[in-house]
Design brief:
It is built from 10 helices and 3 strands. A 3-stranded antiparallel sheet has the order 2-1-3, with no helix packed on it. It has helices at 2-11, 40-52, 58-80, 86-101, 113-116, 120-125, 128-134, 141-149, 190-198, 202-211; strands spanning 153-155, 158-159, 175-177. By secondary structure, it is mostly helical. The model is unreliable at 204-212 (pLDDT under 50). It is 50% helix and 4% strand. Helix 3 packs antiparallel against helix 4 (86-101) and helix 7 packs across helix 8. A hairpin with a 2-residue loop joins strand 1 and strand 2.
C-alpha cells in the first residue's frame, strides 16, 4: 500500500495542479486560405494590396478578409429576420456601433446593407500603420511599420507596437510619437549619442540621461 501511495505522489495524482496556460488559449482560426491557390487575377490583386498597405505577407490580408466575411455573414443573417425582431434590433445595433467606433462607416450609413458593401481596403485604411503614414509621421507606409515595431508611436498615453492595430475614430487625433522616443523629443538614440561622444559633445547626452 505504501509503495502505491508513493507512486501516486510521484505521478502527481491527488495533488492540486496549476491549470495549463494552453487550456485558456483560443484555437479558433484567424484566417482562411483561398480555395484556388494559383488564380492569376487574385494573386496579382493581392500583391498590389500587400504593397500598397505595407503588409508583411498575404496572411495579413487573408486575416482581414476572414474577419470581414464573418461580419458580413452576421449582417446577412440579421437581414433575413423581421425588422421588429428583438434579435435583429439588438445585434444589428451592436454591429453598427462597432462600425462607427472604428470609423469603418459614418453616422449617415445607418443600415446593415452598408456592412455588406464593406471591402478589405476599408479595414486596411483603419490600421495604425496606414494612419501613421497618412498623418505624415512616417515617410512611407513601410517606414510607418518600422516606427511602430520600434515603439516610437503612441495612441493616447499607450505605446502601441502592433502595425495591424485598428484605430478607433476618437483615438485617431491622439496618435503621436512616444514621449521617450528620440523622434518625440526624448533622449537621443544609441548611434547619435555615440557620435556626440566622438565629436566631444557627449555632455548633452549625459545631461539628458540625468534629466530622466
Amino acid at each position: 500500500g505504501r509503495l502505491a501511495l508513493l507512486f501516486l505522489a510521484q505521478e502527481g495524482v491527488g495533488t492540486a495542479k496549476m491549470p495549463s496556460t494552453t487550456f485558456y488559449r483560443s484555437y479558433s482560426k484567424t484566417f482562411k486560405k483561398p480555395r484556388r491557390p494559383f488564380e492569376k487575377e487574385r494573386l496579382d490583386s493581392e500583391l498590389k494590396v500587400v504593397g500598397e498597405y505595407g503588409l508583411r505577407n498575404k496572411r495579413e490580408l487573408w486575416r482581414v478578409q476572414f474577419a470581414l466575411n464573418k461580419l458580413r455573414n452576421a449582417a446577412r443573417v440579421l437581414l433575413t429576420l423581421d425588422e421588429k425582431d428583438p434579435k435583429r434590433i439588438f445585434e444589428g445595433e451592436a454591429i453598427m456601433r462597432r462600425m462607427y467606433r472604428y470609423g469603418l462607416l459614418d453616422e449617415t450609413q445607418d443600415k446593415l446593407d452598408y456592412v455588406l458593401a464593406l471591402n478589405p481596403e476599408t479595414f486596411l485604411e483603419r490600421r495604425l500603420q496606414t494612419i501613421v503614414f497618412k498623418l505624415g509621421l512616417a515617410k512611407s507606409v513601410h517606414h510607418a511599420r518600422v516606427l511602430i515595431k520600434q515603439r516610437h508611436i503612441r495612441v493616447g498615453k499607450q505605446i502601441v507596437n502592433v502595425p495591424s492595430f485598428l484605430v478607433r475614430a476618437d483615438s485617431q487625433k491622439h496618435i503621436d510619437f512616444s514621449l521617450n522616443s528620440p523622434l518625440g523629443g526624448g533622449r537621443p538614440g544609441r548611434v547619435k549619442r555615440k557620435r556626440q561622444a566622438a565629436a566631444g559633445g557627449g555632455g548633452g547626452g549625459d545631461d539628458e540621461e540625468e534629466d530622466e
